Amino acid sequence: MDSSSEPTSGDCPAANGMPMLGLGTWQNTDPSQCADSVRTALEMGYRHVDTAQGYDNEEYVGQGIADATANADADADIDREDVFLATKVATSNLAHDDVLETTEESLAKLGVDAVDLLYVHWPINTYDAEETLAAFDELYDDGLIRNVGVSNFEPRHLQEAIDLLDAPLFANQVECHPLLPQEELRSVCADQDVELVAYSPLARGEVFDVPEIQSVAEKHDVSEAQVSLAWLREKGVTAIPKATGQDHISDNWASLGVELDSEDLERIDGIEEVHREVDPDMAPWN
Predict the structure, then answer these.
(1) I want to staple 226 with a disulfide (CB 3.0 to 4.6 A). Which of 26, 122, 169, 255 is the partner?
(2) Is the separation of the CB atoms in 111 and 66 below 8 Å?
(3) Is 211 exposed, middle or buried (0-12, 13-18, 19+ CB in 10 A)?
């Protein structure tokens, strides 16, 4: 990476209009900390923010976006329309009418008229493919959501959703990182023109202890986090690493300046360890 120039928002590649590096906000529930981290990320150049009803922070995320876009004195000139905002419907709210009602509540908390992407958080609990997805189609037709997404969907759930939806299925958000490369799911999504979005892209810190990633990081004089995020980008995967402090937000952002060569990719692809960090009993793959 050229340390003489930091990446800007224009340096972040996009997948069908969605910036391929975003800010994850899971567990960021302190009101001021959450708003500050969102504002910090946007002023740094991020233009993709991810939240969920189940994170209990939509209001704080909305405040952070408002703070960043309303601050005329900030160095960054941030246009609200350039911020790609995603949220997810909780598994307890996936009945048809609940989807409609709680999405309106999410929009109010976020302080927006529409979100760029609304996900089904998990295909469990109150999820009924026909009812739930019909509600998503209504929200799409009414202009309250600009794209339909799903999360934690296996190939069979993905195909069912594609068959039932009238709106295009835009993205599937799943755990993905060098220790869980999701090769089959990436292939299925690519075949169906569905973007893959990676949560826990640093395997909740496990990537820092992987010798192959350490070696590539040392070669490029960057962090293991930057290597992992660059690897995902090379695979065509959008990453939304969770970060609260400015140092981590900045370190992740700097991954945009990391270019991996074929030798690096081969070394990381050769990692034999497979490790899933998010594996609840009710998960659709269990």
Answers:
(1) 255
(2) yes
(3) exposed
Phi and psi torsions of 226, nearest 5°: -65, -40
Q: Catalytic one among 55, 60, 119, 199?
A: 55
For the record, the structure tokens of 178 come out as: 């060098």
CB 71 within 8 A of CB 45: no
CB–CB of 162/143 below 8 Å?
A: no
Alpha helices in the chain (DSSP H): 31-44, 58-70, 96-110, 129-141, 155-164, 183-191, 211-220, 224-234, 246-253, 262-269
Sign of CA dihedral 90, 94, 98, 104: positive
Q: Is pLDDT above 80 for 9?
A: no
**Side chain identity, residue 241:** P
> Which of 272, 239, 275, 178 lies closest to 18, judged by CA?
239
127 is catalytic: no
Beta strand pairing status for 169-175 and 148-151? parallel
pLDDT confidence of residue 2? 44
The helix (H) or strand (E) run that includes residue 170 is strand 169-175
pLDDT band with cut points at 50, 70 and 90 for residue 11: confident
Which tokens is 134 given?
Answer: 């019909």
How far apart, in Å, are the Cα atoms of 178 and each of 196, 209, 235, 243?
Answer: 14, 12, 10, 19
